[in-house]
Design goal:
Shape: elongated
Distance between the termini: 54 Å
Number of strands: 0
Radius of gyration: 18 Å
Largest sheet: none
Strand content: under 5%
Order of helices and strands: HHHH
Number of helices: 4
Helix content: over 70%
Oligomer: single chain
């Protein structure tokens, strides 16, 4: 019985995670987890630059590899 309940719980959790990952308003978060970065526009829309400064040296080195 416990094994069956754990299986049902696992399926429910997987469905919930997929549902919340593909919601349109949160798609940028899912995309950032897959690609490993966010665009400058997304950073400025969702983060406060004064609280989350980006090191220019590290960001330019990372973006140079993607361009």
């Amino acid at each position: 019985m416990t094994h069956g309940l754990a299986g049902v719980g696992l399926v429910g959790l997987v469905i919930a995670h997929v549902y919340f990952a593909v919601r349109p308003e949160k798609w940028w978060i899912t995309k950032s987890m897959i690609l490993g970065f966010i665009t400058r526009r997304q950073y400025l829309e969702h983060h406060e630059p004064s609280r989350w400064p980006v090191d220019a040296k590290s960001s330019s080195a990372k973006s140079a590899g993607r361009a």
